[in-house]
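Protocol step 4 of 5: obtain the predicted structure for the target chain.
Materials: sequence only (see below). No template structures provided, no constraints applied. The aim of this step is simply to have a reference model before the mutagenesis design in step 5. Sequence pasted as it appears in the construct record:
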Amino acid sequence: MPHIRRPRSTPRHRTLAASAALLTATAAAALALPAAHGDTPADRPAAALAGGESILNMFEWNWNSIAAECAGPLADSGYTHVQTSPPQEHILGTDTTPGEEHAWYIHYQPVSYKLDSRLGSRAEFANMVAVCDAAGIGVIADAVINHMAAGAQETRTGWAGSRYSQFDYPDAGYGPNDFHSTGADYCEIHDYTDRREVQHCHLVGLNDLDTGSDYVQGRIADYLNDLMSLGVAGFRIDAAKHIDAGELGAILSRVEGDPYIVQEVIGGAGEPITAGEYTGNGDVHEFGYPVDLKNHINGSSSAHYLPDIGTDWGYVGAAGTFVANHDTERGGGTMNHTWGQDYLLAEAFMLAHPFGTPSSYTGYEFGSFHQGPPLEGDGAVADVDCGSDAFTCIHRSPYMSGMAGFRAATAGEGLTDLWGEGDAFAFGRGALGHAVFNASGETVQRTFQTSLPDGDYTDVISGNTVTVSGGAFTAAVAGKTALAIHVGDGAGGGDGGEAESGCIEVAVTAQTEWGQMVHITGAADELGSWNANRSPELSSASYPRWTGTVAAPAGQTVEYKYTKVDQEGRTVWEAGADRTVTVPAEGCATVDDTWR
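Step 4 output (structure tokens):
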């Protein structure tokens, strides 16, 4: 169910469970092991996303905050889909392992299929889907359908008041006959080399549904169809490995429409269940991919091998790619946002490279494995306030939002004009785009051959102008940074500009904290349309004096302000009224300012 991005203006200011440790430990162990598997193009499902599309996994964002982000910063990014956390009713935050109250993992313990959770109500979920769809962004729901919550002997109530106990979930329509391995046959998973145990026993006490039952398949399909009726565009199938691939296919065959599907199948050496078994149902998350990114961007392997990444590295062709998710960022097998520029380089590369269907990740700061997101007094997840709470909002970084736009603009083109040396490399996407990545600690300065048409282009990461002439451009790319240009962005794309391009020679004196960069942000498209994360970044070479020459519409008076943006996209605006500068019809305007 593809969604076409419709550009929108961005507002200047916008604010807005069981032992999951074992789950992540299992994931981390599997990440350390290579898996040999593959598929053929014929296995790829019809519902696969198009090559220019991308997903932003907004872990633990509530429905109102996702809606606001879709209507705001995401509307002008290249992201075509957002993934939500599980929307169904779950256990109470106080019914966790002692000492882990209100943990994130309560969302993965369903009590019923009511769309009422600490992330919001059914009405708020439906509104979010509608708002995102209006911005050209589809919603993918994380679907927990392998199991129900870890049941207790006594009766408990879920978030929305549904009563439940072990193997008895009346509001979901399930009783003891609807589960695997009950009574004297009760078992939990210990041996991952035993297919039957993995798919018929209980995962860390979570009650395993009998997904071979026609009745259970119908109940699950009813839940997914309910979400489809609200306009959902697809599903991430949680714990898909623990459902027989054929049984999962039978469930999905009952789902109306043509949803995008991506499945969580964590493989391991010597295990009989492989990702390739599931490609007939949809994409499969490739857990080897983020490990390889980590090893090549911040590890013992050279980064310049990364352009070759793909099925030759042992991945399935129908791969859902990612740099981190909610499990791996806690398990240590992959990078996460605390890795700074290395993490951002990995996200940018994933979005620039044509292999797989990429899923970027944005979550929140945490001090312990189980720690949940910021909450209101009643236990509901608080609205996101980027820059003021624990949510990282890292997706607003141009390494993510800008590169999602690069992916959309270069769809359908393979790799061309490759160059690589040590931990630096570059590639083109035909005549539509070109990207340079420098994972080393030193500046790379050279002339790059490109298939882009001659003209001035805007680097989607720094906002600086890059000139292509005679099939080449010269650039200096600092260590741990990247550069990406494509047809149709800002002043770039040959003759694609609607207005004559002028320029501003900028100088501003500003003190910054470690990790902050100064941007010039303004009303013009070339200045980010008041989106600091898409506005031109100035050079700190003469710190505390920040300088640069930026594109601006010739013959117009432009409003602007200075912003400080850190590595996670958090923004500080200078005080006072908007500044103005008149750009001449020919040549550059000059400004020499001091931060207010």
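Step 4 remarks: Residues 1-46, 490-499 have pLDDT under 50 and may be disordered. The two ends are 47 Å apart (CA to CA).
Proceed to step 5.
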